[in-house]
């Protein structure tokens, strides 16, 4: 703030000299060169046309005018200090409202545990969790989206959370009823259960694209747990994340030499500038948790795998 007094910092420097008892002590506590402080005090005295400090021996001490000025200013300076300290405290305190949108299976995977620990560690944070396969574009700096699909989100920050590898599965009852699926054509003609409306399926062998098949799903349900249940019940075949099938004796992997393209899940949010501390900490907690998940299978590569 500039005025006839100059920058308000000059008044603060003056009060600090009186409070610390000497120019050198004030400079040491403020981390400023003595020449800089002395020059600024002299310039302020010139503007005010009043002598606030005088040299006594090797030190600067307050004149009578300086003492009166100090008594009038010190209370305001202390209030200013207190206000700044409160601002700094608030910036470090974790609080506020966050909205997180994610597919249902994310929450029932590892995210739910992360959220529980986060709320325990930061009790002043309030979370709204929306479980949905539908994209909900973040509209404020307190919104977080977890998604596999970055379509229309090019202007947002998208940080990789994990990558899921998919295989193809059916139940034993389905195979007994409809016959073994031993070819790509047989896979294409099977009764499909899909979790989304991506109906052109790429088939990879050792990360090389070999086939693309167009499927016509018999059932579409936007929850991976429901898809797995439908496959277990013998309704059809599906492309499933290997993490969700590991150890499931009700499922039979078909054409195991093929996989679907790996899918990466992302944390999506608005610009990092002025990002609430609560959101920063939640993002960090999710990324850390994703890196430490163990699945007991070599079906995952590049660090973290899941869905």
UniProtKB/TrEMBL annotation:
> Keyword Transcription on this protein?
yes
Q: Which CDD domains does the record associate with it?
A: PBP2_CrgA_like (cd08422)
Q: Which InterPro entries does its entry note?
A: LysR-type_TF_proteobact-type, LysR_HTH_N, LysR_subst-bd, WH-like_DNA-bd_sf, WH_DNA-bd_sf
Which keywords fit this entry according to its UniProt record?
Answer: DNA-binding, Transcription, Transcription regulation
Q: Which SUPFAM superfamilies does the annotation name?
A: Periplasmic binding protein-like II, Winged helix' DNA-binding domain
The biological process GO terms on file are: DNA-templated transcription
Origin, by domain of life?
Bacteria
Keyword Transcription annotated: yes
Tell me where in this chain the HTH lysR-type domain is found: 7-63
Please report which protein family the annotation says this sequence is part of.
Belongs to the LysR transcriptional regulatory family.
Any idea what this protein is called? LysR family transcriptional regulator
Q: Which organism is it from?
A: Grimontia sedimenti
């Amino acid at each position: 703030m500039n005025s006839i007094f100059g920058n308000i910092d000059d008044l603060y420097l003056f009060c600090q000299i009186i409070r610390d008892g000497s120019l050198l002590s004030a400079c040491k506590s403020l981390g400023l060169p003595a020449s800089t402080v002395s020059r600024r005090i002299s310039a302020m005295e010139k503007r005010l046309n009043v002598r606030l400090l005088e040299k006594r021996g090797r030190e600067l001490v307050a004149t009578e005018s300086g003492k009166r000025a100090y008594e009038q200013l010190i209370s305001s300076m202390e209030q200013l200090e207190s206000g700044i300290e409160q601002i700094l405290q608030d910036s470090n305190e974790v609080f506020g409202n966050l909205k997180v949108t994610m597919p249902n299976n994310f929450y029932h995977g590892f995210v739910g545990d992360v959220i529980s620990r986060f709320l325990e560690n930061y009790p002043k944070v309030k979370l709204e969790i929306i479980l949905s396969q539908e994209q909900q574009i973040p509209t404020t700096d307190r919104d977080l989206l977890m998604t596999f699909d970055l379509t229309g989100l090019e202007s947002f920050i998208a940080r990789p959370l994990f990558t899921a590898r998919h295989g193809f599965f059916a139940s034993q009852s389905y195979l007994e009823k409809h016959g073994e699926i031993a070819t790509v054509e047989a896979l294409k003609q099977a009764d499909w259960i899909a979790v989304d409306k991506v109906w052109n399926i790429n088939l990879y062998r050792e990360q090389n694209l070999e086939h693309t098949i167009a499927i016509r799903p018999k059932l579409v349900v936007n929850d991976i747990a429901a898809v797995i249940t439908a496959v277990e019940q013998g309704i059809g075949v599906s492309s499933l994340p290997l993490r969700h099938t590991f150890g499931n004796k009700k499922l039979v992997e078909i054409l195991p030499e093929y996989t679907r393209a790996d899918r990466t899940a992302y944390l999506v949010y608005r610009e990092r500038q002025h990002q609430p501390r609560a959101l920063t900490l939640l993002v960090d907690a999710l990324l850390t948790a994703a890196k430490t998940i163990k699945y007991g299978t070599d079906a995952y590569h590049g660090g973290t795998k899941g869905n």
